[in-house]
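Worked example

This section walks through a single chain of length 81. The input is the sequence exactly as stored; nothing has been trimmed or padded.
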Amino acid sequence: MTFDYYTYHISGSYLSALINGDYSGLSDEETANFDRFMDNLPPVEGHFDVIDNSDSFRTCDICNLYADTYETRLYFSEFIE
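Given that input, the structure is written out below as tokens.
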């Protein structure tokens, strides 16, 4: 089985929510941004994996602010229809 993926650059502050479902370190505004991001993902069943942060200071795809980000991939095998 082969996997395709989407690449996102996500601030380290969101990784616990993304990987573990743990929102405890997020403010109400950050939680709203995160939920909005998750609601707008492509319609796939998959999983996230954190790849790298060597070129890390860039715009976070969740909050649209410059931050220390991690290259994160959403791996999937097929689209859900």
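What to look for: The chain has one domain: 4-79.
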